[in-house]
Design a protein that fits this description.
Blueprint (H helix, E strand, L loop, with lengths): L9 E14 L5 H10 L3 E2 L20 H7 L2 H7 L10 E15 L2 E14 L4 E10 L4 E2 H11 L13 E4 L2 E3 L2 H9 L29 E8 L7 H9 L16 H11 E2 L6 E5 L3 E6 L7 H8 L1 H25 L6 H17 L9 H13 L2 H43 L23 H40 L1
Parallel strand pairs: 9-12
Antiparallel strand pairs: 1-5, 1-6, 1-9, 2-3, 3-4, 3-7, 4-5, 7-8, 10-11, 11-12
Helix pairs in contact: 6-7, 8-9, 9-10, 9-11, 9-12, 10-12
Length: about 475
């Protein structure tokens, strides 16, 4: 086994995009949009060509036409809705352009946050996007990765992550969470669901509660330096520094590193540009000069961003459905089963598609993301969930039908014995109830059978009508929740 060597790399430009999911109530969607607009967030549409160079940093301009052409028509319609009445992916963006210094263990990293997106996705899921860039002439790969790995932690729980400070003018933010929710996305804070117990199927995101922001980075190496496998591996794992402040790689096996990189690399533009993806990052690195990378950086900010966001949303929704299925209490939450089946069916019929791009490169990157996010495995679990729910519903329906059939059979047999005639002479005209105590045995059977049958018929009609009214009310309430 070859010894593993960590090769240094100087970086002249670094662009970082952070994604964080949250949950909100659908009934508050309109209020949330109004608050975002009140705080100078702009609704993003492809028709507004003036937005092409507004959110991405100096000298970076994306192409709305390329965004239109990259995605298949049925995906484009949902990713870029023309107005807020559409329940697709509603993106609200705001220019920030503020300079910050991230400090941890006496190490400082200067960066600028160019803009923030708040994307309201279907089914009460939202995604915060923070676009940042390195604000210094040159930095080492080790220090950049160390900064990213710590900045993406919203609430530090490990001692390794604690102690950071983010300086902005005269303010100091102790955590990334404070920066995001007390400054960058302040109007969003009251709308985020924090409940641990599900309310229908619009619950919080407990399976992401301790997770970190997903990261997408674009790095430009200095002096046409060769890009090596150990650097790509460190990019995929965001291996910066260890607890002692030394450069770090999370493997000692060069063969393992080689297999890992080979399995996850997109090397279509090698040896100058590579894209590698893992569960928590998608990284592009190039050793070409920045001036010749305008198109690549533009694509990183546009088509690659949307492709990543869409598949990240797929992962969140599939995890959400799996989690909520596991939380269903069959003894108490039977009424949610049909709603969960409806949610799953709507999701994969309207939004979940294996092919999202018509371009060959787009298809390759799509397959890369599907693989690292394990979407096929998660989808198979959800399909199994649907089958289990349908089977459980059928079993419950069969039990109800069998019970009803049993009662109807009893009445049919008794009616048959009486020749379908349960009328007693005393019931003709005005009924004399004083004679009831003197009925014969068979007359008592006729009386009980008749009254029970009438009561059962009334109860069935009342139950059916009541259930229909309740289901309509619950559906109305759920759509507004």
């Amino acid at each position: 086994m070859d010894s593993l060597v960590i090769r240094p790399l100087d970086v002249t430009d670094a662009y970082m995009t952070y994604l964080f999911p949250f949950s909100f109530r659908e009934k508050d969607r309109q209020k949330l949009m109004e608050q975002l607009e009140k705080h100078h967030f702009t609704f993003f549409t492809l028709e507004k060509e003036e937005l092409q160079d507004m959110y991405y940093g100096d000298d970076i301009k994306i192409s709305h036409e390329e965004l239109e052409q990259f995605f298949l028509p049925f995906i484009e319609d949902k990713l870029f809705p023309p107005n807020t009445n559409n329940r697709g992916f509603l993106r609200y963006s705001k220019v920030v352009e503020d300079y910050f210094t991230y400090e941890l263990n006496d190490n400082k990293f200067n960066f600028i946050i160019n803009s923030v997106d708040i994307v309201l996705c279907p089914f009460g899921i939202g995604i915060i996007t923070i676009r940042a860039a390195m604000n210094q002439d040159q930095e080492t790969l080790t220090r950049i990765l160390d900064h990213i790995s710590h900045f993406r932690v919203l609430e530090p729980k490990l001692s390794f992550d604690k102690g950071s400070k983010i300086h902005y003018k005269s303010k100091v933010f102790q955590t990334t969470n404070e920066l995001v929710f007390d400054y960058l996305c302040q109007p969003l804070k009251p709308f985020i669901i924090h409940d641990e117990k599900l309310a229908g199927y619009y619950g919080s995101l407990p399976y992401f509660e301790d997770e970190r922001m997903h990261t997408s980075v674009f790095l430009v190496g200095a002096n046409n330096t060769e890009i090596t496998e150990d650097q790509l591996f460190r990019l995929a794992h965001l291996d910066g520094m260890d607890i002692e402040g030394c450069e770090f790689i999370s493997s000692s096996n060069s063969n393992y590193v080689k297999r890992y990189v080979s399995d996850r690399i997109h090397d279509r533009w090698a040896p100058n540009t590579y894209i590698i993806a893992s569960e928590h990052t998608q990284a592009t690195i190039s050793n070409k000069k920045k001036e010749s990378l305008k198109q690549e950086i533009s694509q990183f900010m546009s088509v690659h961003y949307y492709n990543l966001m869409l598949h990240y949303y797929y992962k969140i929704m599939l995890l959400k459905v799996s989690f909520e299925h596991s939380e269903v209490s069959w003894a108490k939450d039977k009424r949610y089963v049909e709603e969960l089946i409806e949610l799953i069916s709507k999701f994969y019929s309207r939004y979940y598609f294996e092919e999202v791009s018509a371009r060959s490169e787009g298809k390759e990157l799509t397959q890369q993301l599907r693989k690292v996010f394990r979407l096929q495995n998660l989808f198979n679990e959800v399909k199994q969930t649907v089958d289990d729910l349908y089977r459980a519903q059928d079993n419950q329906s069969d039990k109800r039908n069998n019970s009803l059939l049993f009662m109807l059979t009893i009445f049919t047999v008794v009616s048959g014995i009486y020749g379908m005639n349960l009328v007693i002479e005393d019931w003709k005209g005005k009924t004399d109830w004083a004679k009831v105590p003197g009925y014969s045995f068979f007359e008592w059977i006729a009386l009980i059978t008749s009254l029970t049958g009438i009561g059962l018929a009334i109860a069935l009609v009342g139950y059916t009508c009541g259930k229909g009214i309740y289901n309509r009310y619950r559906k109305w309430k759920r759509d507004r929740s």
